[in-house]
């Protein structure tokens, strides 16, 4: 346990002390983020730090990867914060959050139920806004639709190809605790 914590601390130093935005540092940052995703309890803390780091605020790809890796840790206690990111302003971060939920197939039933509810509602919202002519909603839907549907398939074991079908599924199964 102590060894894992030390590894996480050293991986964080690889991010923290490399401040120049160059190709070598980007490779090191990417590897450190991947390492954090392999750590169950210690990884999430540093992945959230990296997500919020000022160097990455304008780097949607890195932020989305941090979020995706949080899901990979399978620390199911992070689900509320990940659900909140489904309303983020950046479409890549939304897609990263949806991809994080693709690791929630073995989460406890109550968590899977809440995730299904919010994913379905957000998918329906993006779809309705995009069909209403909102171009930014169309962009969010373009980035997030596939990852959200894959996450719903993993979580529920069902497969549907549009938001309306997922909404129907949710309305029929919202009281089913064994989702």
Q: What keywords describe this structure?
A:
mainly alpha; 9 helices
- Radius of gyration from the CA trace? 17 Å
Shape: flat
Q: How much helical structure, as a percent, in the residues?
A: over 70%
**Main structural class:** mainly alpha
- Give the number of helices: 9
Q: Low-confidence parts lasting 5 or more residues at pLDDT below 50? A: none
Sketch the major β-sheet.
none
What's the average pLDDT? Answer: 91
* Ends apart, CA distance between termini: 33 Å
What's the order of the H and E elements?
HHHHHHHHH
Total DSSP E strands = 0
Residue share in β-strands: under 5%
Briefly summarize what is shown:
With 179 residues, the protein is mainly alpha-helical. Helix content is 71%, strand content 0%.
Protein architecture, described:
The structure is a single chain. The protein has helices at residues 2-16, 23-37, 41-52, 60-72, 79-84, 91-100, 109-131, 135-156, 163-173. Helix 2 runs antiparallel to helix 3 (41-52) and helix 6 (91-100) packs parallel to helix 8. The protein is mainly α. It is built from nine helices and no strands.
